[in-house]
Write a structure and sequence with these properties.
The chain starts with 24 loop residues before the first helix and ends in a 9-residue tail after the last strand. Helix 2 runs antiparallel to helix 4. The protein has 623 residues and is of the alpha/beta class. Helix 21 links the parallel strand 7 and strand 8. Helices cover 44% and strands 9% of the residues.
């Protein structure tokens, strides 16, 4: 929002929220119906193509978003180092408003402007005329319109909204108040109206021009340099006819320079060219891929979870993961992405963070939760994890943490397999078990005297049950085989606090992956479920309380936090990622994987010392 919002700041359909596309339904319905029922000669192909063009623009922009986030996470050719935060993501989540606006105007123009219907597919003269009109009056008028928008009156009421984003993403290019988009459309309509009135208009000319505007806008705001210097060496005058991402990035960091649309010639003519443009361009091109200090290795959970990754839909990634109904409409894309990961199975970077000089990168193993449960996938997954570990070591990483199912006991003995295979490994492997236990112990309400332990007995489950027994808290289990395993592990050190029970009346449950729905329904009203597993239980009971999976609130000093980690709230990080950061910050020189575990109390104190805070849920204070 601008600092002093002027008239026509908000879009007319803002009150509709996610239902804004309903306003297009009448036009789309009429377009399809008329195309079906009319004779071939009477069908209007242009009218029918407006909706596909709108979908293409959305896909085009989304591809730029994913590419930009991937490249800036890797660091190669990155222009501005500063990260983005949730406020920018929220401000830019309605980037599709201008596509919707343009579609409405195209439908209206097609219906009411003479000659705007039944357009031919191609006309060469119209394409050439469009190019000339854009390079001439459009670029010139845009330059002066842009300078006018930087006048304090218009800037404070309109254009400051766009400049709230110092670090740009491709979609930043279209984040303007409604009034500005009216002006921009009037400007960009000059070539289209001219070729329409001259009879040279064609569907190809319209589609190509709109795609060109989108391409150049997205490229100019992508925050990584991709224009090779050789093209300027081959044809030097091109520097006046085509801008680069670094050229426009300076406009967002310096504000009073580089006003041109896509052709910098007017900045050269009127003396508004930033003197550091060439230097920033050259430095950005030379910039190498960033080497991380810490790597967190995770994986997608479900096929549709790819849309919740930071490289997916920005608006979904900025919220805790939940099954979204409209994602099912994208099943062709989902299927295509699954096939792509199956064929080109390779770990990739999705996110970068910085904390107290520590560079953290999140890498994704392209395997889904269901694949981790298949024995036939075990070798393939282990090979991918091993390759990622060796790659991280080659890049100089000090710590690598194994997230989600990358640290399964059956898969790789909690990561111990890789240390055994590579005894000289310099990068330290961390499974986060000690911090997970510490978080669980501090999540149990004060005054609790007994808990029920239910679920698959993992390394964390054994450790937290033992710690509770040592604290004098009774740990009850429901199944005899689980009791025998725990009792054998603890021996006489359980202090008599480990019991086999048939009761479900415990008010605090520590739950893992094998908790059944039937068992959950047997819990008494007001029960607190605290997961010790990587995945949260399904919330079946509205009269009970559910804690998150082991996680902590991150300090504000953690930079570039603009997406949620799976189902966790904003600025909340799983202990498996935090443990790696703490391991690096404390300079620990040992692995924490396999069946070894760091000192629980020391890890907890170190986490608090570095600003990570425990999460609280609304629960009764005593059980």
């Amino acid at each position: 929002m601008a600092s002093k919002p002027g008239i026509l700041t908000d879009w007319p359909w803002t009150p509709l929220g996610s239902f804004k596309y309903i306003i297009l339904v009448p036009w789309i319905t009429e377009s399809i119906y008329s195309f079906i029922v009319k004779d071939e000669k009477e069908r209007d192909v242009f009218n029918l193509s407006i909706f596909p063009l709108m979908l293409w623009r959305m896909l085009h922009s989304q591809l730029w978003i994913s590419l930009s986030r991937y490249r800036t996470a890797k660091g190669s050719n990155r222009i501005v180092d500063k990260g983005i935060e949730f406020d920018q993501v929220d401000r830019e989540r309605n980037w599709d408003d201008q596509i919707l606006f343009n579609a409405i105007l195209f439908y209206l123009g097609n219906k009411y402007i003479p000659g705007a219907s039944h357009l031919p597919i191609w006309r060469s003269d119209g394409v050439i005329l469009t190019m000339l009109l854009h390079a001439g009056p459009v670029e010139f008028l845009y330059y002066w319109l842009h300078r006018a928008l930087h006048h304090h009156y218009l800037y404070s009421r309109y254009h400051s909204h766009h400049h709230s984003s110092i670090v740009t993403e491709p979609i930043t290019s279209v984040i303007h108040p409604f009034a500005e988009h009216i002006a921009y459309f009037a400007l960009f309509a000059i070539p289209l109206l001219t070729i329409l009135l001259s009879g040279a208009v064609s569907i190809s000319a319209v589609a190509a021009y709109i795609t060109y505007l989108d391409f150049m806008n997205n490229m100019g705001h992508c925050n990584f340099e991709l224009i090779p210097s050789c093209i300027f060496s081959i044809f030097p005058p091109l520097k006046y006819l085509m801008y680069t991402p670094s050229f426009h990035s300076l406009h967002h960091t310096q504000f009073r320079t580089n006003y041109s649309l896509f052709m910098p010639i007017y900045d050269h003519i009127y003396g508004t060219m930033d003197k550091s443009s060439d230097t920033l361009y050259e430095n950005s091109l030379k910039r190498k891929e960033e080497s991380p200090n810490v790597v967190h290795l995770t994986h997608p959970t479900t096929p549709e979870s790819i849309y919740h990754l930071r490289l997916g839909f920005a608006s979904l990634a900025s919220k805790p993961y939940s099954s979204t109904s409209y994602c099912w409409l994208l099943w062709p894309v989902t299927l295509w992405s699954m096939m792509l990961t199956w064929i080109c199975s390779r770990t990739f970077v999705v996110e970068r963070n910085r904390f107290d000089k520590i560079r953290l990168q999140t890498w994704v193993i392209p395997k889904y939760k269901i694949q981790y449960r298949l024995k036939c996938q075990k070798e393939s997954i282990n090979n991918l994890i091993e390759e990622a570990i060796l790659e991280a070591e080659g890049k100089g990483a000090r710590v690598l943490s194994l997230g989600l199912m990358n640290q399964g006991e059956e898969l790789n003995r909690y990561g111990g397999l890789y240390v055994h295979k590579h005894p000289q490994l310099k990068v330290k492997l961390v499974d986060g078990s000690s911090l997970a236990v510490a978080v669980l112990l501090n999540s149990i309400p004060k005054g609790t005297t007994q808990v029920l332990l239910r679920g698959n007995l993992t390394k964390v489950a054994y450790a937290v049950a033992f710690a509770l027994c040592q604290k004098g808290i009774q740990v009850a289990v429901l199944h005899e085989d689980e009791y025998e395993k725990l009792d054998k592990s603890f021996g006489t050190k359980s202090e008599g606090k480990l019991v086999l029970s048939k009761s479900y009346s415990y008010k605090t449950w520590l739950v893992g992956d094998e908790l059944t729905e039937a068992e959950q329904r047997k819990a008494t009203k007001g029960t607190l479920f605290i997961p010790f597993s990587q995945f949260p239980p399904k919330k079946l009971r509205k009269d009970c309380f559910y804690h998150t999976t082991p996680a902590m609130q991150t300090p504000m000093a953690l930079e570039n936090v603009d997406s949620c980690e799976n189902w966790l709230p904003r600025r909340v990080m799983s202990v498996w990622r935090i443990a790696a950061l703490v391991h690096a910050l404390e300079g620990c020189e040992e692995h924490e994987c396999g069946y070894t575990m760091s000192n629980i109390e020391k890890v907890w104190e170190a986490s608090l010392k570095h600003g990570f805070q425990p999460l609280r849920v609304s629960t009764p204070t005593k059980f």
